[in-house]
Amino acid sequence: xxxxxxxxxxxxxxxxxxxxxxxxxxxxxxxxxxxxxxxxxxxxxxxxxxxxxxxxxxxxxxxxxxxxxxxxxxxxxxxxxxxxxxxxxxxxxxxxxxxxxxxxxxxxxxxxxxxxxxxxxxxxxxxxxxxxxxxxxxxxxxxxxxxxxxxxxxxxxxxxxxxxxxxxxxxxxxxxxxxxxxxxxxxxxxxxxxxxxxxxxxxxxxxxxxxxxxxxxxxxxxxxxxxxxxxxxxxxxxxxxxxxxxxxxxxxxxxxxxxxxxxxxxxxxxxxxxxxxxxxxxxxxxxxxxxxxxxxxxxxxxxxxxxxxxxxxxxxxxxxxxxxxxxxxxxxxxxxxxxxxxxxxxxxxxxxxxxxxxxxxxxxxxxxxxxxxxxxxxxxxxxxx
Amino acid sequence: xxxxxxxxxxxxxxxxxxxxxxxxxxxxxxxxxxxxxxxxxxxxxxxxxxxxxxxxxxxxxxxxxxxxxxxxxxxxxxxxxxxxxxxxxxxxxxxxxxxxxxxxxxxxxxxxxxxxxxxxxxxxxxxxxxxxxxxxxxxxxxxxxxxxxxxxxxxxxxxxxxxxxxxxxxxxxxxxxxxxxxxxxxxxxxxxxxxxxxxxxxxxxxxxxxxxxxxxxxxxxxxxxxxxxxxxxxxxxxxxxxxxxxxxxxxxxxxxxxxxxxxxxxxxxxxxxxxxxxxxxxxxxxxxxxxxxxxxxxxxxxxxxxxxxxxxxxxxxxxxxxxxxxxxxxxxxxxxxxxxxxxxxxxxxxxxxxxxxxxxxxxxxxxxxxxxxxxxxxxxxxxxx
Lengths: 385, 385
Prior knowledge:
2 copies of one chain form a homodimer. By secondary structure, chain A is an alpha/beta fold. The first copy, chain A, contains 14 helices and 11 strands. In chain A, a hairpin with a 4-residue loop joins β10 and β11 (376-384). In chain A, α1 (22-37) crosses α3 and α7 crosses α11. The two termini of chain A are 18 Å apart. At the A-B interface, α2, α3, β3, α4 and β8 of A face α2, α3, β3, α4 and β8 of B.
């Protein structure tokens, strides 16, 4: 397999983008990535999107977006793995370049979630759970993650305040990110008194409904070095795994087996261990998710995730900065775009272009993107050359 | 890139499978393919499905199916390109094996279309067109293909009876296929007097609403020769292209540019020309589609597609047999499964296992699978070794 690098990145401000269609958001970010890479053509494209069918009544999405970007007849592939659709698009783009089939590949993630009402958005998201065994019985994602939180609190003594600390940290980081949907700080007190959603999770424990996209250009590493003067960022590790889609089928509701397996594969491929990672972007769809994820990634021992934000370990400036972009919590959660936006952030950081939120001396970054209650996970490791 | 072969195939009878869920249909065919290949594990899986989100309220589909097949934590990827989703899954499985990332890959296509009413099914399918510029104005696929038919009749003198001959041929072929949804013959008279859908297309010009799946096992060619005593079937050509998703954006409504481009790429990769193909499975979602497709594939000159079924050229026993399986018309049209089922049929034929519908001496087969009104197309060429 050929070495693969990220040569271009693009992202625009996330939020409730009433004035833009899905195709507009997509094209904006794709053009930014193409411009950043300085390439004059594209060989193929991948787009991660969870459910444009339900959100905007549009399938056949990759063809539509190739059309609107004006790059037909190039091959265009849409991939779906719920909220891990973006990470999956990154993996497929990686394989396409690594195999030698394509040289310059456009990888995007996009979701337009605000064209439907809140109840319909909740329904759309619930299709990432097992519809027949979870959805039809009334459980939605806040409820599933609330059960994971309760189980973690029961097994490991994780506290309600520790959950809040994750939101406080990520909102602080998001306040430094001009593209974040909610670029403001929140306090522990505000989280603890915010509207209850599913006990013990309150509204400030939950990531929002967001419109947004992000885009990358991938190419062979040697080509990246020739085409661009920016530091070459190589994808050194790729991990992808699945778990039972239904939470009730798992032996332990606090363990994310797909994240553990995907991380093991990515660490092995990259020849790295958790301590080698300088910063990580992880899937904090709910505050409890970040806690379980950093355990599964091996950043902290099992059961100790709750103390990480509280102790400052995962803070910007801490030993293991997590979600310096603001994470899903503050940056926003356009579900299909997350895995691509994580690579956008890592590339900014590894190039030293992250401005106020720059992690000094960052050379190795990890992105973890998961679908549903952890039924699928992608882990990528990036290193600046 | 490594050489890739089809080592296992699986398919069950298509139709209105009221008693089975999507996951049941999927697992049945996947187990048949695994059994046919004789492999004891899977490294990764791909599933093509157009819109399980709208049809059965289920996204995160690949994880669910990996779960139900009992093969978690293996990587699982769902791809979508409307009715070309199955062909796209074949391509992605091909790249995964060719790149060296995976050895044994399960590739499936599936759609469960009858859990919703006819109006909802029509809506679901319409999401393969440009929703904002075609769907919202009331056009659905029979209408789009009717316009293509009218344009072809106007430009090339194609007749109403010539359209009917495609249906007659494919129903005759389907009558020999025990897995077909409609395994019976129809006459020209029956087609011409069947219910009008969108002038000039009548109900017997249209492929049906179908539940169904098909599955393949792909692996490196040298591994296939070691693992299986069955004739090795190599994927020698892969082509993939896009066109404008909206019909009104094209210069010529009778030309399928994505099919032309995908075919050119596949012929070039395989070192073949149209005359080298012994049989083809093509995307006859409507009778006019087969006529336009065989022109785009170069089997007949532009404008001469209408005469092919009438003259017997594309009949079983003709010089260029097309859709000996019965095609979408008689075999059925579970949209996400088509591209995989085409490879199932070609593999049966190239192995000499096709029974009553065997094409004698078949050594090179071509599959053409397209999405929407031709906005995306996959072409694969297979050769028995």
